[in-house]
Amino acid sequence: MTEIEKKLDAIKVVPVIAISDASKAAKLAEVLIENGLPCAEVTFRTEQAAQAIRNMRDAFPDMLIGAGTVLNKEQVDAAIEAGVDFVVSPGFNPTTVKYCQEKGMAIVPGVNNPSLVEQAMEMGLKTLKFFPAEASGGVAMLKAMSAVYPVKFMPTGGVSPKNVKDYLAVSSVIACGGTWMVPNNLIDEARWDELAVLVREVAGIIA
Ligand code: 3PG
Fold first, then answer.
1. What is the dihedral of CA 186, 187, 193, 197, to 10 degrees?
2. CA of 15 to the centre of ligand 1 (A)
3. Is there an atom of ligand 1 within 6 Å of 183 CB?
4. pLDDT 10s digit of each residue in the chain, 207 long?
5. Which residue out of 12, 129, 134, 152 is catalytically annotated?
6. Which residue ranges form the domains of the chain, and what is each CATH number?
7. pTM of the prediction?
8. Which atom of ligand 1 is nearest to the CA of 131?
9. Membrane-spanning residues where (predicted)?
10. Is the CB of 138 under 6 A from ligand 1?
């Protein structure tokens, strides 16, 4: 496993964040770290994503930070410039994958069927996002693909406190991703105590 893969494997759950105000990013990172999830996948679904990553990185140089929903080379550049450890994309885009590889940046692209897994393997990838996990067949689909392919998966999309343990019990699962412990409204309204409770709940589930 690479260093990033080892860290994902240890953390087990990656909070997937869409942050609309980058000035809240450092505080959000602090709440995540202090409550047991020292990691964030900051999605490029908001315009403030790169600045949010920069603010988290400045405040917590050792935090594991990924860029999510990365769809093109420009966003890869922005993510690298902001200081990410890894890049995540919802789908398998060979152009984005190749670009990350050229830049020496770890990428975890999304797949949800055998053909995509094989295309990703052909490009040398060993850890893939299984997205959208629940809508694509959930744990049953994951187990079926895991029986065939020697890769690790990061299921995301519909993972929740109800099913996260079932996903993590599959031996090919390196970590799960999810938004449920970082709801946008709690971030927007700076409701850090409530957020801390949700994060602690996750840390409790995976302990
Ligand atoms: C993602 O961005 O990876 C998914 O949209 C997260 O899915 P969730 O909201 O069901 O956790």
1. 70
2. 9
3. no
4. 899 999 999 999 999 999 999 999 999 999 999 999 999 999 999 999 999 999 999 999 999 999 999 999 999 999 999 999 999 999 999 999 999 999 999 999 999 999 999 999 999 999 999 999 999 999 999 999 999 999 999 999 999 999 999 999 999 999 999 999 999 999 999 999 999 999 999 988 887
5. 129
6. 3-197 (3.20.20.70)
7. 0.96
8. 3
9. none
10. no
Cβ of residue 68 lying under 6 Å from some atom of ligand 1? yes
Q: Which structure tokens are listed for 52?
A: 């949010």
Cα pseudo-dihedral 98, 50, 156, 191, rounded to 10: 170
Query: From the CB of 156, is ligand 1 less than 6 Å away?
Result: yes
Q: Give the number of the atom of ligand 1 that is nearest the alpha carbon of residue 45.
A: 2
Per-position DSSP letters for 85-110, written without gaps between them = SEEEESS--HHHHHHHHHHT-EEEEE
41 carries an active-site annotation: yes
